[in-house]
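SAMPLE LOG
Freezer: B-3
Tube label: C17
Construct: single chain, 305 aa
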Amino acid sequence: MRCASRKRDLLPSLLYTSILRGQIVPGSGTSSARSWLGPADDFRVPPAGAPGWVRADHECGPRIHEFWGNFRLDNIDHVIPVSNPRYEHWLAVNAFVAAWYSPLTALDGLSIMELERAERQRACPIPAALGEWYQLAGKRKDLAYFGPPEGLVLQKDTLIFHCDDDCGDAMWGIHHTDLTLLDPFVLIDAGDHRDPAKGQPLWIQINQSLSVSIFQIVVMDTINCWEGGSFGLAHGEESNVQLIMEHFVPFGFPDARWLGYPTLLFHRPGCLVAAVADSEFYALTHTEADLLAIGDLLKLEWETL
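STRUCTURE (predicted):
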């Protein structure tokens, strides 16, 4: 896959940069918990010294849907009622999908019966937020970033809902005690940063709900894997981040991570940009000319076109 080679190229330099900055301590599996957007009370941040697993349902945090507010798509009402606290969030996801793929339709999702059958097969509940994604897009092959519900894996005490085999087996999961929550906290394991002597997942709990993580993964995998556009990779610094902030709109994902690294995601019509660890920059545009123009605007030289 084209996205596999894109991602592999980034791993060595990202790891080296993060070690230098103290964001990742080799063998520790931990990274600095930098929250990029919104005040601290946007999410229920675990207090200092809290137990390892903090059980709490989420609101959707910063109102991500405001950035896609011009899209008033009503074709999710058959799945997500307006009374659902995540209704506006899924409208935003639908708007993003419509902009870069094609709008979601009633034929794209799994039925309640299919989800219940998957739960019986696995003898394990599917959190409501993940079930809502399957009901919206579970049959869309171009959005198959999470695999089928019957293929979800419960690894020891964590349900794995997303795994990136192209990037050192990075995983996103939910602790088994949180599976009955509607929109629980998410855990990430950066794969290549595990202790080689033990080889066990080193889970980091991030300040991000499941529904928000789903949206973030869809955006990031669109940048890395979307076919038909032009992809650019560049190395830069914080001054480039400032330029992005001046010319692009942030998605507003709290505590966004990609492979364990603090990540900022932005958009403007026809373009998506990610800033990872303030040092790696990715962009996706519809044409190569657009990509070159974005590089000039942000003072970035693309190494991959």
